[in-house]
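Page 47, continued from p. 46.
Same chain as before, 368 aa.
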Amino acid sequence: MKFVIFIILFFASAFAFSQQTYSLQDCFAVARENNISLKKSKNDIDASNIDKKAATFNLLPSIYANAEHIFSSGKNIDPVTNNFVRDNFSGGEFDVTFQLNVFSGFTALNTIKSSLYKVKSSEYNYQNNTLETFSAITMAYAKIMFSKEQTATIRSDNLLTQNELNIVQEKIDVGKLSKSDYYTLNTRYISEQASLIAAQNDSALVMNDLKYLIGFNSKTLFNIKDVDSTEIQTIAAKNFKLTEILDTVLKNHPALLASMYTEKSVEMDIKTARGNLLPGISFVGNIFSNYNLSERNLNNAHIAFGKQLNNNFGKTAGVLVTIPLFDKYQNNFAIEKEKITLSNTKLYTQQIENDIEKKIHSNYLMIL
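Result:
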């Protein structure tokens, strides 16, 4: 019998040892690395930075090369002489084109500015997501602690009720009390047991929520540490002024700042769309050559491939002016659509500000 008890105690201690105990700060640290929502927010920042790089590199000139080789039969144009021929031949051409945009309605610069604002918006969105996640973790952590205290209290009361039941049963056995006293006390005992089970279930549900918030799955085993009560008392003892809280939060809340930077980004998008209505100026250049594998000289001797490329080499340089005349009003529609997006973004910013003020007022009244 002693051996069986030893085995049970051994496995119970091993099970408890395998569970890590996390403080509230530990939960924050784990969530920062494992929470899916926070990971997605980090990816959004990376994507915004890529867009910023793409917009910046768009200022560089574009260079591209083309190569073509054809097999011709019947009437066609000789790629070297540009004369009509009816011979079977194979030939082709090479060219390298260079283009540097000098002016395009400041669309490139406005796109860079827009991408910079989007990066800032993504960063503040990540901060806001972190704030909301940590707030949810804190609430779940507090609920678990409350459930533990509640469970301990109910269990203690239930043990006292059970002792009272034993005493009442003894008095009934000796004829000092009637069975009605036992039934009344037993009803209270059963009710306390039901409350105990409900409190344990609530604690398990909240613990499961906490696991997912910090990035674990339901099978992960861990416990939480008690919060230092002196720290809570220090926070509770502070005096808060509603106007100061509102001013501070409305200036620094990441959700509000993210929406404001989104507004700035959309404003740049409108300028970019308007810039597309203006003429564009570019420097362009081109080098080229061609060949015909069947080409022969006056002595009917085959002309070497390399010599043909050298003989047919040419280059061009110039200025390209592009004037948008009629694009079926597509760019005008794009401008109008961006204006609607800006209006919605401003409304969203106002909604966030209203929600923040409402939440602050509500919380402030709760602690008065």
